[in-house]
Amino acid sequence: MKKSQKIIMILICLLITVFSVNVQANSDLSWDSIKDSVEDFENAGKQDPLINTDEIVDAVVPVGQMLTAVGVAVLFGALILLGIKYMTAEPEQKGKLKQQLIGLVIAGIVIFGAFSIWRVAYNFFEEVF
Asked: How many angstroms separate the CA atoms of 40 and 37, rounded?
């Protein structure tokens, strides 16, 4: 694509964006109406929450456990595969496989650490709030 074609395409996209914006102003923008809107918003937030934290935990924990189980299964499968490759590899290839094994160890730390970090953060915020 030529430089002039790129510039034309950018200008067309810019014009479409500018002319597609539809701004509608409310004719009743008085201080009292704004204040009433703010008070309505605050009162809506003070009512019973729509989402209960226990419901969120009940929904998230099984998903987290499932993802951790899948991660552990993949981790051990990869560990076994790389271990077999390492045992049968020539000395030159062992250096490359060590790098992959280091990455695998880091992946394991992330998998097991993610659940621990989430549990610590959840317990901390449960006590604070």
From this structure: 5
Report residue 13 CA to chain centroid gap.
Answer: 30
pLDDT of amino acid 5: 84
CA distance 17 to 30: 30
Compute CA 33 distance to the chain's CA centroid, rounded to the nearest angstrom. Answer: 38
Q: CA dihedral in degrees (79, 84, 90, 94; nearest 10)?
A: 10
Cβ burial 86-112 (10 Å sphere, 16+ → b, else e)? eeeeeeeeeeeeeeebeebeeebeebe
In Å, how far from its chain's centre is CA 100? 26
Q: Considering the entire predicted model, what is its pTM?
A: 0.52
Which structure tokens are listed for 93? 């290839």
Cα angle value 80/81/86 (rounded, 5°)? 95
Cα–Cα distance between 119 and 60 in angstroms, integer? 12
- CA–chain centroid gap for 59, Å, is 17
How confident is the prediction for the chain on average, in pLDDT? Answer: 82
Please say whether the beta carbons of 91 and 76 come within 8 A: no
